[in-house]
Write a structure and sequence with these properties.
- By secondary structure, the chain is of the alpha/beta class.
- It contains twelve helices and 17 strands.
- Strands 3, 4, 5, 8, 9, 16 and 17 form a seven-stranded mixed sheet that branches. It has a six-stranded parallel sheet with strand order 12-11-10-13-14-15, with helices on both faces. Strands 1-2 form a two-stranded antiparallel sheet.
- β1 and β2 form a beta hairpin.
- One of its GO terms (molecular function) is oxidoreductase activity.
- InterPro entries: ADH-like_C, GroES-like_sf, NAD(P)-bd_dom_sf, Zn-ADH-like_protein.
Length: 371
């Protein structure tokens, strides 16, 4: 096969078109994968239309994190082999400066060094039958254990794409069994995944949000463990902070707070409320999508010796550990964690997929492209 089908995006003013393109070939340091399923994030319509003005290099093949099978490998591959089932990470890092990074087919970084990655070698992503990846962005999955013994489908394995993001943040603040973690908001696409991951890490989880029905849905999945406490936010900082701190069962407060605020939450009160519920020397990690500035209580941070950090995606070691969590039964997938609804579409149905992803409300649903 010398050609393959792919969705080609020329600009944000015209929709992607399905085209027959040359099949990519493996070179040193790379592999070609046969794409099995690609996650479609809820805001993909905004990326394609330019409503979210992410830096992109046109023309390109859009994409997302995928589950795939190795088709061919470059001459320097020593571990990956054709036929292996793999998790494909779209976080592309420059090999001579790993701090320079892009999201393949989604975000070009927005500064010259990062944009160079997307302008050149890493322009095309996974909305296609075949895709090229750096060897270090592919993670072998023990198919015999995960699919045959544990019974997970390819669709269920795509849950790894959502869970890897909060796992990166929670690993960065080094939480573990017995620690208490505030997750706010906890009912969204990544916030709900953070609940799932923190529970698997052995934490006591304080899930906060404004939607009681969605908090109740999380409680249905994890309520019997006794480690998930829901807090319905009121919008009053002092009231909410007191409720969050009380839920930790510690007079000093929570060990960590992970934030997945959406773009429109820049003026929300939950961030300050959660920071106020942290113990002295507690940690906060921001992973949300607020584009502008937020107000932080300076003196509280200083006197409590709090640490706040941003976390973009995750490290390779995080994905390797997360896959081990699944293979060893520590992190479950599918219905066992409330992921009840998988919707799959072909490449020709990309518009239906994007619209379905836009309509999905919070944790529990996953929209996929199946080339």
């Amino acid at each position: 096969m010398t050609t393959h089908q792919a969705l080609f995006l020329s600009s944000t003013t015209t929709p992607p078109t399905l085209q027959k393109l040359p099949k990519p070939t493996a070179t040193a340091g790379t592999a070609i994968v046969r794409v099995l399923a690609v996650t479609v994030v809820p805001y993909m319509n905004e990326i394609l239309s330019g409503v979210r003005p992410y830096p992109l290099s046109f023309p390109l093949i859009p994409g997302g994190t995928a589950i795939a099978r190795i088709d061919s490998v470059g001459p320097d591959s020593v571990s990956l082999k054709p036929g292996q089932l793999v998790f494909c990470d779209v976080t592309i890092r420059a090999r001579d400066d790993p701090d320079v990074q892009i999201l393949l087919g989604i975000h070009g970084g927005g500064y010259p060094a990062a944009q160079r990655l997307m302008d050149g070698e890493w322009r095309n992503a996974t909305w296609a039958e075949f895709a090229k990846f750096p060897l270090e962005n592919l993670y072998a999955i023990n198919e015999n254990v995960v699919c045959n013994d544990l019974g997970y489908s390819v669709e269920e394995l795509t849950t790894l794409a959502i869970c890897a993001v909060p796992f990166g943040g929670l690993s960065a603040v080094r939480v573990g069994p017995g620690d208490s973690v505030i997750i706010a908001p906890a009912t969204g696409y990544y916030g709900g995944a953070a609940v799932t991951v923190a529970m698997a890490m052995g934490c006591r989880v304080i899930a906060a949000g404004r939607n009681k029905a969605r908090l109740d849905a999380l409680a249905t999945v994890y309520g019997e463990t006794g480690r998930l406490i829901s807090v319905l936010l009121t919008g009053d900082e002092e009231t909410d902070s007191a409720a969050l701190k009380s839920a930790t069962r510690s007079p000093k407060g929570a060990d960590a707070y992970i934030d997945f605020s959406p773009p429109q939450a820049g003026k929300s009160t939950h961030i300050v409320a959660a920071l106020g519920a942290l113990r002295p020397k507690g940690n906060a990690v921001f992973m949300g999508g607020i584009p502008g500035r937020i107000e932080i209580p300076y003196s509280m941070l200083m006197f409590k010796n709090l640490t706040i950090q941003g976390r973009f995606m995750f490290e390779r070691k995080d994905v390797e550990k997360l896959i081990r969590y699944v293979e060893n039964g520590i992190l479950q997938l599918g219905q066992d964690i409330g992921m009840m609804n998988f919707r799959s579409f072909g490449l020709k149905e990309w518009e239906n997929a994007v619209n379905a992803a836009k309509e999905q409300k919070g944790w529990g649903s996953q929209v996929l492209l199946r080339p």
